[in-house]
Amino acid sequence: MSVYDRRQVVSEIQKTLREFLFTETEVFYYHLENVGVSRDEILDKPEQFVDALHDIFGNGAALIESAIISEISSQNTGSTAEQSLVDVLKSIERRAK
C-alpha cells in the first residue's frame, strides 16, 4: 500500500496485539479507553497509546512496539527504520490527512 490508510494501519496494530494477547485484546482496549484513547484514536493520540502499552506491559512493551513497527513497515512504503512507534504513528497520521 503506497498511501497510508488509517483503517489499514489500525487493523495492522490490532493484528499485532492479537498475536501477543490472543483473546485478551478486548481487555487491553478496555484499559486503553480508561486512559482516554479509543481504537480509532490510536493515530490521533500516539503518545497516550504508547504510554498505555508501557503501563500495562512494562518492559514487554518494547517488544510489542517493535512488532507493530515491523507489521506497519511490511505493509506500507516509507522508512520506519530507527523510528519510535510514536514517530511512526505521527508520520502515518500526517500522510493519511
From TrEMBL:
Gene3D superfamilies named among the record's database cross-references: Protein of unknown function DUF3227
Domain of life where this protein originates: Archaea
InterPro entries tied to this protein: NitrOD5-like_sf
UniProt name for this protein: Nitrosopumilus output domain-containing protein
Organism: Nitrososphaera viennensis
